[in-house]
Structures are given as structure tokens and as C-alpha cells.
Design goal:
This protein is α/β, with parallel strands linked by helices and 329 residues long. The protein has helices at residues 57-64, 87-90, 104-107, 114-125, 130-143, 160-172, 190-207, 218-224, 242-247, 252-259, 266-271; strands at residues 5-20, 26-42, 46-50, 72-77, 80-81, 97-100, 178-182, 210-214, 227-232, 235-241, 312-313, 319-320. It contains eleven helices and twelve strands. The chain has an eight-stranded mixed sheet, sandwiched between helices. The radius of gyration is 21 Å and the shape is globular.
């Protein structure tokens, strides 16, 4: 593993059991939420993870944080496989791994003040007490653009954007190395979204943070990410440098996603080709054989239903899982 690699996810699988029976429940199937996913994140880098709702993006984030214990695979953080650690051994490492949730209204305890919300991680880890505790809370509030006098306010006394800043402050309190951003702007007004993304960008440069930025907003992902990974039905179909991916998408699914992004130029918008995918996303309980995208793919051919395409490197860090680019073809 390269010295600058902070996180390495290898062959990650997360299957949720489907059971049947009222009294004697038996396992009859699996929901393959994440199926053999591999990627890495370098120090100070932002990896955007995009895809349709239900493709497994959030589950990947929870597996990294060990909120879900993976069915198989490795999650190596600074060289340590988190999947092999007990909850007790994980606790010291949780300082370095934090999360910003999608909805600040639901992710903040309404009975806690802002100081309690930011300070709870500090108390659990036993890092600060007394005056130092209050100073750290005030410091973090300042960092995210909230006034220290707001420390005694409750979540309902903040606006939506301020609540998300409070969620970011909680994530920053322990001075992490990696933050999982699980659609951190999707519940906010459009006018506030850019402010939060710019704040995350400023914090990254100031503290050397790495982000896994989970989102379905491709325009925002392009703004904040260094590299982008595209998921479909539990699998990665393309991973590339941001500019390369948006300039030259290779996988048919990525091409369809990008064609749906609005362009703020009526003349260009009227002339460009929009790829409309037919059919519905298959069930993760019974995914298609071969390439999981082939039932909806406008470029499919016979072999697509028989072979699972590996994620291959086409050079320059551009990886794609499609038989159109396989050496076998």
C-alpha cells in the first residue's frame, strides 16, 4: 500500500439476509447491497461516490465506519484492517474516522445543546475536561462559522444550514483524518448547499482532511471531488479522475447519468443528447447474471449476460467495468 493511501477498501461485500417463517425463521435469500467493491482514498483527497438511490453508496460508508460489519472483504485504514477489530479495539480509531449525516434535523439529539453535541465525542474519548472542554467547543463552533454564544442553544433553535454546520462541528471535534459525508447537502435549500460545500472545501485545505463524498448531485460532486467512483446495483462500474470522467465517460451507465445533468445554457441544453434508460433498477435480492447493468444498457451484446466484467485500469487511473473495454473483446 502506497505511503499516501489513507483508506483501502478491497473486495467489500455487504449482504443482508432475507428470512421466512413466523416462528422458525430461515434464511431464504440475500440482499446484495454491496457486492465486491474495491477503491482507495489518499491523504487529503476527496473521492466522490455517485449513483442512483439504492445502489449501495450509504452502505459502503457505514461499512467503512463499521456501523455495518461487512459480510466479506477488507477495510484498511492507515494499514489496519478495521473489519478484524473488536468494538473495544475500534474505539481509539474512531477519533480518526467521522461522519456527517444527510439530515441534520434527524441526526442531532433534540435534548442536547450545541455544546453537548460537539462535546459528547470528547467525553467518550476522554480527551478534554473543564475549561479545556469549553474552549474546544468554542473553537470548533468558530471554525464552522457559528458564534460561541450559540453553544447553549438546542438544535431546533438553529436554521437548517446552521444545524448542518453543527453536524460538521461534531465531526471535527476529534480532529479526524477521514470524514464520510453521506449526502450532506441534499436536505438543504439550494442557496445553502454551496455554502456548506465551500466550508467543507476550506476545512479540507486547513486541516488536511480526506472525504468520501456520497451524493447523487453530479454537479456538486464535480465541484468538490478529486476522483469520482460510480456505483450501480452494489458494484463499481467506473472510477476515474474527476476531469477525465466528466470529459470522457466510458461506461454506458456513467454516460446516461451525466447526460441527465442540466446545463445552464438553453442553446446547448436544446441540442445535447439525453440518454433515457429503459426499465427499472433490478432487485438486489436477485440481480441479473453477468453485468448487472446489461438489462438497461443501450450498448449490450450477448456476452454481457454471461460474464461479470472486472474493473480494469485503462491507464491514467481510469478504471471501468464493461466488456466493451475488456481485453477479451
Amino acid at each position: 500500500m502506497a505511503n499516501d493511501t489513507l483508506l483501502e477498501v478491497k473486495n467489500l461485500k455487504m449482504y443482508f439476509p432475507v428470512t421466512s417463517g413466523l416462528f422458525m425463521q430461515r434464511r431464504v435469500a440475500d440482499i446484495k447491497a454491496v457486492d465486491d467493491v474495491s477503491f482507495d482514498i489518499k491523504k487529503g483527497e476527496t473521492l466522490g461516490l455517485v449513483g442512483e438511490s439504492g445502489c449501495g453508496k450509504t452502505t459502503v460508508g457505514k461499512c467503512i465506519l463499521q456501523l455495518h460489519r461487512a459480510t466479506a472483504g477488507e477495510v484498511k485504514f492507515e494499514g489496519t484492517d478495521l473489519c478484524k477489530l473488536s468494538n473495544k479495539d475500534l474505539r481509539p480509531l474512531r477519533q480518526k474516522l467521522q461522519v456527517i449525516f444527510q439530515d441534520p434535523q434527524d441526526s442531532l439529539d433534540p435534548r442536547f445543546t450545541a455544546a453537548d453535541i460537539i462535546g459528547e465525542p470528547l467525553k467518550i474519548q476522554g480527551l478534554t475536561r473543564g475549561r479545556e472542554y469549553r474552549e474546544r467547543v468554542s473553537e470548533v463552533l468558530n471554525i464552522v462559522g457559528l458564534a460561541p454564544y450559540m453553544a447553549d442553544r438546542y438544535p431546533h433553535e438553529f436554521s437548517g444550514g446552521q444545524r448542518q454546520r453543527l453536524g460538521i462541528a461534531r465531526a471535527l471535534a476529534l480532529r479526524p483524518r477521514l470524514i464520510i459525508c453521506d449526502e450532506p447537502i441534499s436536505a438543504l435549500d439550494v442557496s445553502i448547499q454551496a455554502q456548506i460545500v465551500n466550508l467543507l472545501d476550506d476545512l479540507q485545505h486547513e486541516f488536511g482532511l480526506a472525504y468520501l463524498f456520497i451524493s447523487h448531485d453530479l454537479s456538486m460532486v464535480r465541484h468538490i471531488s478529486d476522483r469520482v467512483a460510480v456505483m450501480y446495483l452494489g458494484k463499481l462500474v467506473e472510477v476515474s479522475d474527476r476531469d477525465e470522467l466528466y470529459k470522457k465517460p466510458l461506461h454506458p451507465y456513467t454516460q446516461a447519468l451525466l447526460s441527465a445533468v442540466p446545463i445552464p445554457d438553453p442553446a446547448v441544453e436544446a441540442k445535447r443528447l439525453v440518454i433515457v434508460l429503459k426499465g427499472e433498477v433490478p432487485s438486489p435480492i436477485n440481480p441479473p447474471s453477468g453485468c448487472v447493468f446489461h438489462p438497461r444498457c443501450p450498448k449490450r451484446f450477448d456476452l454481457c449476460s454471461a460474464f461479470i466484467p472486472p474493473l480494469i485500469d485503462l491507464g491514467g487511473g481510469h478504471h471501468v467495468a464493461c466488456l466493451l473495454y475488456s481485453p477479451k473483446q
